[in-house]
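Tutorial handout. Part one gives the primary structure; part two gives the three-dimensional structure as tokens.
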Amino acid sequence: MTAGRVLRRFVTIGFGLVLLWVGAVFWLGLLYWAAPPVSTLMLGRWLTLQPVERTFVSLDEIAPSLPLAVLTAEDSRFCEHNGVDWDALRDVVEAADGEGPARGASTIPMQVAKNLFLWPSRSYIRKGLEIPVALYLNLIWSKRRMMEVYLNIAEWGDGVFGAEAAAQKYFRKSARNLNAREAALLARALPNPLVRNPANPRPGHRALAGQLQVRMVRAAPFSDCLKP
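Part two.
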């Protein structure tokens, strides 16, 4: 087999894999419009026989303080943008290092896109793939569904996924009974969920959560998209 034929075969295989991934994003996006979603991290743990704690709950079964805390901490323009905050993305990409843009470049739809269809490590390739998937999901889902999915697939500890499992593990209560302080502690744990413990926060984590509670009051008028 000549080098040209080998190259063409690799190109054909690569193109086929891309089409397969695009098809999976399209159909799973439609499926997850109603069905409980499964993140790539959860799937990876199941495949390697590691435990997964997750109980899917609707947004109505989560205290309003938690989605407000997450919106305020992670994506303050969540109700306004179309899935991508272009201004914030440009600023963060310009300030990025050689490993790619940091977490600050991601909106909640982009984080949902990453958690459902991509891999966790930082890179420009992954960030580039996040964008069209986030735009697609934002097009077919409501803002409430986007937040609901995010709060059910976010990692809040080793094998702990979703608001209900996190509330039970750290505060021994249902997600619907979380108060504002507990919601702020959970939201501030998200950037580093394997290190930050909401039930036993370090001083820095506690201070960030306190600041977030103040910001939540100011952000509340801009969270109307989360209302039924």
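Part three, for discussion. The radius of gyration is 19 Å. The first helix runs from residue 3 to 31.
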